[in-house]
Amino acid sequence: MGKFYPNPKFKTITNYDGGDCIAWCIEKEGIIHMANVWVHPESRGDGKGMQMMEEIRNHFPNHQIITDYNETSQGFWKKVFEAGHIDEVVDHNFEFEWVY
Question: Using alpha carbons only, what angle is made at residue 85 by residues 6 and 36, rounded to the nearest 5 degrees?
Fold first, then answer.
């Protein structure tokens, strides 16, 4: 099981650290925007990313969780969405100026 902790620099971000996978959960108005999601290359395909997203879903049960994607992550996010761990996958990149 991973650990959740406040980002030391940005108060709207909760960090997730699962050892070989990490993510930023950026909260705004009841919505969690996923960012900086990363799984160690040697752990990809082992279900670690899916486990991380299930833990994030359980940590934020009353929030909508959304993400954007790039070419290499689109397949992963489709699986996570189909598993019910996120609510929406958008086809454009988020602009996070409001975080900083």
Answer: 45
- CB contact burial 60-77 (16+ within 10 A = b; e otherwise): beebebbbbbeeebeebb
Assign 47 to helix, strand or coil: coil
pLDDT one-digit tens code per residue, 67-98? 988 888 889 999 999 999 999 998 766 665 65
In the chain, how many H helices and how many E strands?
2, 6
Nearest one of 42, 90, 39, 45 to 64, comparing CA atoms: 90
- Encode pLDDT of 19-33 as tens digits: 999 999 999 999 999
What domains are defined for the chain?
A: 3-89 (3.40.630.30)
pTM passes above 0.85: yes
| Cα–Cα distance measured from residue 38 to residue 22, given in angstroms and rounded to the nearest whole number | 5
